[in-house]
Write a structure and sequence with these properties.
Elements: H1 3-19, E1 28-29, E2 45-53, E3 64-70, E4 76-79, E5 95-102, E6 110-116, E7 123-130, E8 133-139, E9 149-153, H2 155-186
Helix pairs in contact: 1-2
Length: 191
Amino acid sequence: MNKPLLFLLPFAFIFILSEAKSSRLQPQAAAESFNISYIQSAASCSYTAVITTSCSSTRYTRDQISISFGDAYGNQIYAPRLDDPSSRAFERCSTDTYQINGPCAYQICYLYLYRTGPDGWKPKSVKIYGYNSRAVTFYYDVFIPSDIWYGFNLCQSASSSGRHSGRKWFMYVVLGLTVGALIGWMTGEDT
């Protein structure tokens, strides 16, 4: 094995490991500990929610749609009813934009939708813009079950990934260099 290929081997190894985790998360029912009554009363920040309904959703819905989202520090924003059948909200292939006021939050890391009614509804995505956080998009593309909070909680993975990502990358580099050195040793070449 020649030296240039041996040099690139650890980097290829690191690239493969880093790309292995890039799958899309699926929404799920909120944990039993999720509680809307926990909402803080301060209403001092404005958020924009851009909700895109899937083209494979029902033509329209008369269902009641609610939203709750927040950060890892317990700041929770809640809008009890976004739907308005007279405004043609949540029609198939449509995008609806809402201004929602609530407590000021840091980076939004969870979002749940609640649907109750007979029609069904399939959102494609929900994008939240906030003052203290980057815009974040939650991809659904599944029908929301009736009468449960359904969505994403990325707060634990977001807070823990920042702490462990440096250590994880260091381990990948060490592992890649070790594998490269081992291969070089086995082929009788110095690295």
